[in-house]
Amino acid sequence: DAGTTSVVTKKLCERCNMKTNKIAGIDRRKFLKIGAGSLFLIAGAGLGPILLRNRRVYSMTKTLMGTIGEIQVVHDDERLAYCAIDRAYEELDRLERLLTYFSDNSDIGRINKSGFLQDVVISNETADLIERALHWSHATGGFFEPGLGKVTSIWDIKHRTEPPPENQWIRFADRSFSQKIVLSKDGSHAT
To answer: Which of 81, 93, 79, 84 is nearest to 19 (CA)?
Structure first.
């Protein structure tokens, strides 16, 4: 059970003196930079197979954002591996609470539900993501369309196993919904 595993891994992490947001005093971004750089050096030196031969793959599967996700970690210490997996899922859970389309309580869900009627207060992270999405919509000439919102309901992805008939979606073709998305100057509200 994923809930039981989460409790167990949290207890293991506490024993390892690992903090929720920082590992050994290093924030996530720095940790990822160091990890990526180390991986590059190890692989480049041809040491990868030698260093990895005593390591095992640990994995956990969980449902999030309307799909099934699996995280795998290669490590020689089971406790640390599950600690890392648990922290990764905590971050994905946090992002889901902010960004998922499947909940009216997330920033995106609240925008889809009432953003066409009134300003919706959103987090800085969501504002940044929307700003980037609008940039890519413009850069791709509208081929990337972040403003579909409620239009996607005709696909009924929770129940439908094939695309809807053309007569249901054709009226939305070649429309630029993202042009209607407005972020406040300080990025705290969206409509």
So the answer is: 84
59 φ, ψ (degrees, to nearest 5): -140, 160
**DSSP character string of 120-136:** EE--HHHHHHHHHHHHH
**Taking a C-beta distance cutoff of 8 angstroms, is the pair 61, 70 a contact?**
yes
Residues with Cβ within 8 Å of residue 86, at least 6 apart in sequence: 5, 6, 9, 10, 13, 60
Burial grade of 7 (CB within 10 A; 0-12, 13-18, 19 or more): exposed
Ordered per-residue pLDDT tens for the chain, 191 residues: 445 445 544 555 554 544 444 445 566 666 666 666 666 666 655 555 655 567 899 999 998 877 888 999 999 899 999 999 999 999 999 998 898 877 888 888 888 887 777 888 888 888 888 888 888 888 888 777 777 766 677 777 677 778 888 887 777 766 666 666 777 766 566 65
Could you tell me whether strands 67-75 and 189-190 are parallel, antiparallel, or unpaired per DSSP bridges? unpaired
Q: Which DSSP state fits 158? A: T
d(CA 174, CA 35): 43
Query: Considering the entire predicted model, what is its pTM?
Result: 0.57
Residue 84: Cβ-neighbour burial (10 angstroms; 0-12, 13-18, 19+):
buried
